[in-house]
């Protein structure tokens, strides 16, 4: 029996747009020193979905430049084009349509429409507008958003296949700063909730999963580490541990001690 088959999580899959995935860790492909490091870190993370900034990464637009798809081929990974760097709904929609052309009709996209360059918080008004257009246009939209439970519900109602609230600002490494909002979003969602932004280290990823989130997407926390490949491996283990702990159900918090051994029948 293989280690995977023996694992309690072996049949616990993440389903996005009707497709099941064993890994709940989604990774970015930017900020690595080269494509080889990108490949090795992605392998170490065990990621099956990798997100690609269409406006910054070559996936065939430039035939004379190194192509990310040569090291992360679409027959092995689900390529998730994202709209990083877009500040309006129109920009984001055009970018998604370009990705669909480059990837031969691929419809799964990650939508993000930013509000300003300092905080990189989402512009929720433009995000809603872009999401409505993309869903009408036949895209399967995974959407980066704020931690507002009402907005998360609205994006689900529009037809987004996954909602991706931030845990803290993009690239901040602050970890989960909004656990009560995330809990509210998770408790009311009928689509996967994937933490996107703010994770800094393995314990942050584990906390997000212990809260009941369905997955975690990260880039800077891995690519910016002193040893990206080792950190990718750590994140893989953290996501798996957090998911297992959530499913197992933690003990309630108490103010006072509770003996590990029962006291009934003590001589």
From TrEMBL:
Record-level Gene Ontology MF annotations: thiazole synthase activity
Coiled coil: none
InterPro entries: Aldolase_TIM, Thiazole_synthase_ThiG, ThiG
GO terms classed as biological process: thiamine diphosphate biosynthetic process
Signal peptide range: none
Record key words, sorted: Cytoplasm, Schiff base, Thiamine biosynthesis, Transferase
EC identifiers of the protein: 2.8.1.10
GO cellular component: cytoplasm
Top-level lineage group: Bacteria
Main location: cytoplasm
UniProt xrefs under Pfam families: ThiG
Thiazole synthase ThiG domain residues: 16-262
Chain sites annotated for binding 1-deoxy-D-xylulose 5-phosphate: 171, 197-198, 219-220
Top-tier EC class: transferase
UniProt function note: Catalyzes the rearrangement of 1-deoxy-D-xylulose 5-phosphate (DXP) to produce the thiazole phosphate moiety of thiamine. Sulfur is provided by the thiocarboxylate moiety of the carrier protein ThiS. In vitro, sulfur can be provided by H(2)S.
Subunit structure: Homotetramer. Forms heterodimers with either ThiH or ThiS.
Compartmental location: Cytoplasm
Catalytic activity, reaction form: [ThiS sulfur-carrier protein]-C-terminal-Gly-aminoethanethioate + 2-iminoacetate + 1-deoxy-D-xylulose 5-phosphate = [ThiS sulfur-carrier protein]-C-terminal Gly-Gly + 2-[(2R,5Z)-2-carboxy-4-methylthiazol-5(2H)-ylidene]ethyl phosphate + 2 H2O + H(+)
Functional pathway: Cofactor biosynthesis; thiamine diphosphate biosynthesis
Protein family (similarity comment): Belongs to the ThiG family.
Stored Gene3D superfamilies: Aldolase class I
Protein name, as recorded: Thiazole synthase
Active site: 110 (schiff-base intermediate with dxp)
